[in-house]
Amino acid sequence: MTEEEKQRLQKVIAQAGVASRRAAEKIILDGRVAVNGEIVKELGTKVSRHDEVMVDGVPIDSREKLVYYLLNKPRSVVTTNHDNKDRWTVIDILDDVDARVYPVGRLDYDTTGALILTNDGDLANQLMHPKGRVDKVYTAKVKGIATLEQLAPLKRGIVLKGKKTAPARVAIEKVDRDKKVSFVTITIHEGRNHQVKDMLFAVGFPVEKLRRDRYAFLDLVGLQPGEYRDLKHDEVKRLKAEDYRYLRRK
């Protein structure tokens, strides 16, 4: 096999459904990968289909069937494959799925809503990459009586932890003046930790509850919290081909 026919080790691991490409890089650096019986920690290592690649002592199978699921994540569940605090994870919910799936991105412990899980490392990397600009639509219950004027800075972008956020789309769905709460819809395409909560807090509206209603074009219709479904072939095809250039659709 020529050098051109070989692939980077992290790509091979991702294609096998072990982890996303970014997570695969960390797995390699942590010394959990062996090629032909030798531990490899170099990210630039290339392997062929004839090389034996093992992760945590288990051979990977690059021919593993790719699977795709949409989960309506409930509250009090962590978005990870393993939790050192022994909390319930999104993987525990998919207990009848044999494939080694992992979540695409993350939702906070107390945030609910749309979450994709797959063993397709290439698609996961595409969707999570900042250049992908995948729309994520959230509904937030916030303290206070919100007005569009007060939310306007979010449409322009605000500085959080020294970095300006991309312009967001915002709307007020409902205001309960008796309880002094508002329901705000916000659409972003970035994926910083706690971003929606931090953005709303920055303009004076602490979040009480947060739900992600849509990821790209995928919504929660027909899914109760804790339920999930297979993505249809056409949905997967669209995810791979979708033009997510958010700013052009403003």
UniProtKB/TrEMBL annotation:
The terms describing its cellular component in GO are: cytosol
EC number of this enzyme = 5.4.99.-
- What's any GO biological process attached to this entry? enzyme-directed rRNA pseudouridine synthesis
* CDD domains per the UniProt record, alphabetical: PseudoU_synth_RsuA_like, S4
Record-linked InterPro entries: PsdUridine_s_RsuA/RluB/E/F_cat (IPR042092), PsdUridine_synth_cat_dom_sf (IPR020103), PsdUridine_synth_RsuA/RluA (IPR006145), PsdUridine_synth_RsuA/RluB/E/F (IPR000748), PsdUridine_synth_RsuA/RluB_CS (IPR018496), RsuA_PseudoU_synthase (IPR050343), S4_RNA-bd (IPR002942), S4_RNA-bd_sf (IPR036986)
Looking at the record, the residues that make up the RNA-binding S4 domain are: 7-64
Q: Pfam families annotated for this entry?
A: PseudoU_synth_2, S4
Q: Which GO terms describe its molecular function?
A: RNA binding; rRNA pseudouridine synthase activity
Q: What residue ranges carry the coiled-coil annotation?
A: none
Q: Say if the entry is tagged with keyword Isomerase.
A: yes
EC category name: isomerase
Sorted keywords for this record are:
Isomerase, RNA-binding
**Its family?**
Belongs to the pseudouridine synthase RsuA family.
Write down what this protein is called: Pseudouridine synthase
